[in-house]
Every structure is written in C-alpha cells, then in structure tokens.
Amino acid sequence: HRYVGVELADAYVAVCVTAPDGTRRPSLRGALGTIAASLPGALVGLRHSEAVALCPAASALDADLVRRRAERLARSLVAAGLRVGMGGWHPGPAGIRASYAEAEDALRIAARRDLGGLVAFEDVAVEHTLSSDERARRLLVDVLAPLADHDARRGTDLIGTLRAFIASGFNLTKAAHRLRIHPNTAVYRLRRIQELTGRDPRDPDDVVTLSLALRIRDLDRRAQGTDLSGRAPPAPRRRNRRRSTTGR
C-alpha cells in the first residue's frame, strides 16, 4: 500500500458482487462505478468472475453502516441480474480473509437457494452450519411443522406469535402490543405452541431450537418468494381505466 499511496484501515468488511451464472464479467466491470459510489472509501476491484469491495470498518457498528449501504447497492443492481454477498466484521488484517470467505459462502448459499438482494453471512450462518448435516436441518424444519399446519387449518398465527415473542426479547407485554392482542391471548398462544411442538418458548434451551427453526423457515420462505407467514404475496390489482366520454 505504500507504493500506491493508500492508507489501509485496521479492519474491513468484504462485499462481493457476482452474476448468477458466474460468467458475466462485462456486467461486473460496468458495475464497478456503482459499487464504488455506493460504498465510499472501499477498495474495489475485479477478482476472477466477481467484483470485490473491501469496506473500512473500525468496529461492528461501522459494519452496520456498510450493510445499509450494501442493501441499497443490491437494490440498484437487481436490474443487471447481479447478486451481492457480505461477510461479517472481524478485527485486524487477518479479519479480511475471514470476511471475504464469509461473503463467498453467502453468495454460494444465495445461488443454491436462488436468493435475491443482499445476502449477508450473518443471515445465512445457520444454513451454512447445517449444510453439512441435512438431518439436523430436517429436525429444525419439522419443529415448526405442527404450528404451520395449525395456522393453515385454523387461521391462527402461532408462528407469528412465536416470532414476535422472540423479537420482543421474550417480553410478553411487548409481544402482545406488537401483535395488537391482549396479553392473555399471547399467553394462550404460547401455551399452544408448547403443546404442539413439545418445546416451551420460555425455556432457554427450547427457545434456541425454536429460534433456529424460525431462521430456517424464513430463509425457505424467502427462497420461495412467499412472506414470513408462508403465504404467496398478493398479485397486484389491475386498475380499471374509465372510458373517456369526451366528445360523446
């Protein structure tokens, strides 16, 4: 870096951009300007069949800023058919290699699951961990199957309740407020979740399994183009054009 006059930061987060088929180098070359503009301060270049941006990040908080910028970048590259993968933040120069490897893993999972937009390693870490053990993955998928079946048959929202309870830091009042239901209703739903799955959302050990199962389910829903409840997004409504009566 002394020869090119570049002052290196203490730590970087890797953001990689590639085409689904891995061969569209001209598209990547044309996107370099967009990548550099979207990730200010990043070291940007082409490596084999991908564009790599090393974004300076002094701390994990800086990595959050990089993520927001990478999300906007991914949205701007959708039309070009390019995928964006992001690694995590690791301190020191050695962390660059780790972050780059994670960005690569994120892109591989994105390709395997046909995921669009930004795919950050932290979002697919569970998938990455379980990719070598299909039995463990299947166990997690099966954990929520009784809840999904109950919601489909009864029109309930047990999975949404579980998600809200975890997202609220296991605070029943906050979860009920988020769901716009009475706290007693939330208590009843949590009891039903335990009855159907055999796992108590308020037990530290069981909630780890339930949380991981939710992560896998959400990743599946995203790959299938459905919302987090498992329902396909509604088709856009056609607008009925009024016929002009001018001249009649």
Description:
With 248 residues, this protein is an alpha+beta fold. Helices cover 54% and strands 10% of the residues. It has ten helices and five strands; from the N terminus they run βαββαβαβααααααα. Helix 4 packs across helix 10 (204-224), helix 7 (158-167) crosses helix 8 and helix 7 (158-167) crosses helix 10 (204-224).
How far the N terminus sits from the C terminus, by CA atoms, comes to 76 Å
Q: Give the count of helical stretches.
A: 10
Strand order of the largest sheet: 2-3-1-4-5
Shape: elongated
Mean pLDDT: 84
Strand content: 5-15%
* Tally of DSSP β-strands: 5
Descriptors:
single chain, 248 residues, five-stranded mixed β-sheet, 10 helices, 5 strands, disordered N terminus
Briefly, what is this?
With 248 residues, this protein is an alpha+beta fold.
